[in-house]
Design goal:
single chain; alpha/beta; 4-stranded parallel beta sheet; 8 strands; about 45% helix
């Protein structure tokens, strides 16, 4: 399977462990990642709020690069998934095409709408298949209870970007079970992590993150796993501030989606970049008989 690899911004900078673990997992699952150094940011949170037409054109350019190579596009960020999928959807509107196509023509780009945007979660659970992944597991994650944290943009708006129910998704839980862990169902798994307001209402954002973590803990989760690097920032990088906001310890390890898969396929914590996390994953690793590595 060959896919145009769109890592997004976070995985190339502050969340490099996401890119690192994605590459490890892709190799084991037979996914060839085709690099496109000229891909640009999806514009979420900045360009899309200032100029929606420009944001659609920006992502139409990204899509057309993959399209020219005859490839579907793989994302590892729920927010990038949302922006790119929304661009594909909105470009079906002739009025939008009338505004966007001339801008693309000026830079020699022609968008035809033949490239699909696929998040790693969809590729693993649908294209490869849960049972095929189960057959590759060499270190079952038995004894570990994991709460999936889907984030917003992978599920909503469901009519434009969603591939499953925004209220009762099941793909991530099916994957967690195939990896040998026990999936934990809790309401917060489909709620917001707080990231969209983190830099304007930090206290509120941190309380939102703490609410979701507390919900998962109350339902028995030992750890959370998310397909979104921005959710990972809220839940892991800002967890210490979330603790201060609510006045109690949270101590919840947070895994990126490919890290969880990689553990079950035999990767070491170091190969998956786990020492980069701000919340130590040692307690979760001990559940599966693994020892963490020094940060």
């Amino acid at each position: 399977m060959k896919l145009a690899y769109y890592p997004g911004c976070v995985a190339q900078e502050s969340g490099r462990e996401l890119d690192q673990s994605t590459r490890w997992v892709a190799q084991r699952l037979g996914i060839e990642l085709v690099e496109f150094p000229s891909f640009s940011c999806c514009g979420s949170g900045f360009v899309d709020e200032a100029n929606s037409t420009l944001n659609v054109a920006l992502n139409a350019r990204n899509l057309s690069l993959a399209e020219k190579a005859g490839l579907d596009l793989l994302t590892i960020c729920s927010t990038c998934q949302g922006m790119l999928s929304l661009a594909n959807h909105r470009l079906k509107d002739p009025a939008v095409r009338t505004r966007v196509d001339p801008a693309l023509a000026k830079i020699g780009v022609a968008y035809r709408g033949t490239t699909r945007v696929k998040h790693l979660l969809e590729v693993v659970t649908r294209d490869i298949g849960v049972e095929a992944v189960r057959a590759k597991v060499t270190r079952p994650l038995r004894g570990l209870k994991v709460g999936a944290f889907y984030g917003c943009h992978l599920l909503r708006p469901s009519g434009e970007v969603g591939t499953e129910s925004p209220e009762e998704p099941r793909s991530f839980e099916a994957l967690i079970e195939a990896l040998g862990a026990t999936p934990v169902l809790y309401r917060g798994r489909v709620m917001c992590c707080g990231f969209p307001i983190l830099f304007v209402r930090e206290g509120t954002a941190n309380r939102i993150a703490a609410t979701q973590i507390d919900d998962a803990r109350a339902h028995g989760a030992d750890a959370l796993a998310t397909p979104c690097p921005l959710c990972h920032i809220s839940l892991d990088s800002f967890q210490n501030k979330a603790e201060k906001a609510v006045g109690h310890s949270l101590d919840m390890p947070i895994f990126h989606l490919p890290q969880l898969i990689g553990l079950a396929l035999g990767a070491t914590p170091e190969e998956l970049g786990l020492p980069r996390h701000l919340v130590a994953t040692d307690a979760a690793l001990a559940k599966i008989g693994q020892v963490g590595v020094p940060a």
